[in-house]
Write a structure and sequence with these properties.
The chain is mostly helical. The protein is built from 7 helices and 6 strands, in the order αααβααββαβββα. Strands 1-2-3 form a 3-stranded antiparallel β-sheet, with helices on one face. Helix 3 packs antiparallel against helix 6. The longest helix has 110 residues.
Length: 315
């Protein structure tokens, strides 16, 4: 109750007593105050709206600024990518230029090669035409055939000049056995027994194994001379055949009838009379060595080696 009294008293203390004369003036003042308050409220609402618009504009501006920054970053990235792309494009263009130059060079080379090939083809065609003519490949074959016939005829003439015959009788191995047996029995006429048994002959002279045995006091000198002459015939026939067939001899001959020599340009060891099997062929030598195709004193190893070279040269 006391509180209510206090409130009433306060209201009463605030209440203002206005005289009638001042009432209209007070009403006018209050009306003007009310209008001012309304106007202030209206201005306040306008200002609030402007403030809200401004705040919204600021928010939109900030959003646009962020978007603009993002777009600027993207643009910078695009610029960097474009720069790299431009550099790569320049490199590719340079490579393409070099490849184009190389291709042009190759095309020029191909054109020149094509021209040369065309010229060579025309030349080949002309050569083929010339070969197909009267004096062409067919003529060459005929000439070669005639040459072979001529060579055969010449070789046949040599066979007539130096007829080689095989006399009936024992074989070559049997001749060696016969010679060995006769030597062991102390018969110095073993050579004649060997000749009598029959062997290979040239122009009627027997090709015996005289060069493979040692000379002795009882050796028939005529038989030695006959063997040397027969080997001379063989050497001469071989040289003629090689000349007519245009075939160089592996071991050249120095003809001299029954005193014919055969040359070895590269003997590694000079043959000795002690060991014929130790003779081996060739290392380089500036001077050729000559070996006789006839018996020379009592040393028959050189003659045996000469016959060996002659047989090897004809094989």
């Amino acid at each position: 109750m006391e509180s209510k009294k206090k409130v009433v008293e306060e209201q009463q203390s605030h209440e203002k007593v206005v005289n009638w004369e001042d009432y209209q003036h007070e009403v006018a003042r209050l009306s003007s105050l009310s209008s001012a308050v309304n106007e202030a409220n209206y201005n306040k609402s306008l200002m609030q709206e402007k403030l809200n618009d401004y705040l919204q504009f600021e928010a939109e501006s900030l959003s646009w600024s962020n978007q603009l920054d993002e777009m600027r970053e993207k643009l910078e990235a695009r610029k960097l990518v474009m720069g790299n792309t431009s550099m790569n494009l320049k490199v590719v263009q340079e490579k393409a230029k070099k490849q184009e130059d190389e291709l042009n060079s190759q095309i020029r080379s191909l054109l020149m090669a094509g021209t040369s090939l065309s010229v060579a083809s025309r030349s080949l065609q002309e050569e083929n035409n010339s070969l197909a003519g009267e004096r062409g490949y067919g003529h060459l074959k005929n000439v070669q055939k005639l040459l072979r016939m001529r060579q055969q005829f010449l070789v046949f003439q040599i066979s007539l000049l130096y007829p080689v015959k095989v006399a009936t009788g024992h074989t070559f191995d049997q001749e060696l056995d016969s010679y060995s047996n006769n030597s062991k029995s102390g018969n110095p006429s073993g050579v004649k027994a060997l000749d009598a048994s029959g062997s290979l002959t040239i122009s009627g002279l027997h090709l015996t194994v005289l060069p493979f045995k040692k000379m002795s006091f009882f050796t028939d000198k005529k038989e030695v001379q006959s063997s040397a002459t027969a080997l001379g015939y063989v050497a001469h026939a071989v040289s003629l055949i090689a000349f007519y067939l245009e075939t160089p001899l592996r071991y050249p001959l120095r003809l001299g009838g029954s005193r014919t020599y055969i040359c070895d340009y590269a003997p590694s060891v000079e043959p000795t009379s002690s060991d014929f099997t130790s003779i081996s062929l060739p290392s380089l030598s500036s001077k050729p060595m000559e070996f006789p195709l006839f018996l020379e004193g009592q040393d028959t190893t050189r003659s045996a080696y000469a016959v060996f070279l002659l047989n090897k040269g004809m094989s």
